[in-house]
Amino acid sequence: TDPPTIPITKLYPDNNFPEGEIQEYGKDFTMKTIFNKEEIKRKEKNEDNFQALNDMRRAAEVHRQVRKVAREYIKPGRTMTSIAETIENTTRLLVEEKGFEAGIGFPTGLSINHVAAHYTPNAGDNLVLSEQDVLKVDFGVHVNGRIIDSAFTMTFDPKYDTLVKAVQDATNTGIKAAGIDVRLTDIGEQIEEVMESYEIELNGKTYPIKCVRNLCGHNIAPYVIHSGKSVPIIKNGDNTKMEENEVFAIETFGTTGRGHVIEEGVCSHYAKNADLTPQQIGRIPLRIPRAKTLLNSITKNFGTLPFCRRYLDRIGEDKYLLGLKNLVDSGVVQAYPPLVDIPGSYVAQFEHTIVLRPTCKEVISRGDDY
Fold first, then answer.
1. Any catalytic annotation for residue 142?
2. Same-domain check for residues 247 and 174
3. Does one domain contain both 93 and 32?
4. 351 is catalytic
5. Peptidase M24 domain: from which residue to which, for each copy (predicted)?
6. CA angle, 357 as apex, 353 and 362 as ends, to 5°?
7. How far, in Å, CA of 263 to CA of 21, rounded?
8. For 120-132, how does the pLDDT look when each residue is reduced to its tens digit (9 = 90+)?
9. Which residue of the set 138, 169, 192, 362 is catalytic?
10. Residues 76, 33: one domain?
């Protein structure tokens, strides 16, 4: 239906969801694998691996359908709140939201212009999208904690086309470079080379397009959006290798600014610290009684999945700001404030989730759009 209202499981009653784009590994890899074909067959058939992959494919199909709705809905003059709610409500419907079994992967990022990431409206925020804005739409869908993290950039003036093209090209370069046993710094080097081969003319001035050097792609683990390894978007000397069956979000950010972001502005994004065990959390003294009840609510509703203030409002929490601050100050919850380049600059982003399967890489979130 248009707009889509039918949950994805109803469209695929046999529960076999469409696979993403398959990319072959490079020549070096092929030589290694010729010797252990049987081993690989066994791994590809592994029940747990298939279940995880199928969950990700279901989440990815939801992501594709939701972003189609988003692209049609997003127009200058819309409020950020209405855009976020359209994306989130469509996600809830199509993924059949059900606690930790299926739902939203993290808050809808709607960062504009020099804000690179981690902006979503809080209650009462009346920001309106304008014709001259560069909007990054970054949202997540999960099934059984398997998160699809994928993002794209929307503009309404063709003068930004080169910026958008540079970043899309850089992200695709990173995806192509990724693979089993590939060093993270080598991926960053290839991304940087492509991104920084572009320049853009804006209002009579030429700007080099730079990588935002302190933003990275990342591993994704069940219910944990940023886990383990970071995938740089510049050559950074990290010789850590990617490994078989790992899941990565490959994302790049290109900017007309200084190529470095800092935390600034009102925070909306939070997540429980996934590195702490329940026992460790239990030993941390919380000064404010409200912090304890809020923590219980966060644990029950989100676990280690990221959330925003609007999601707390939605589950009926109120008067929670002091309690939330106490949780952040004590290290139990992490705050992720907006990340910004210099005012007046423009940042674009593209991102896909990939899986390094034993015989090929699957770009799970790939669609006809990007």
1. no
2. yes
3. yes
4. yes
5. 55-254
6. 40
7. 35
8. 999 999 999 999 9
9. 138
10. yes
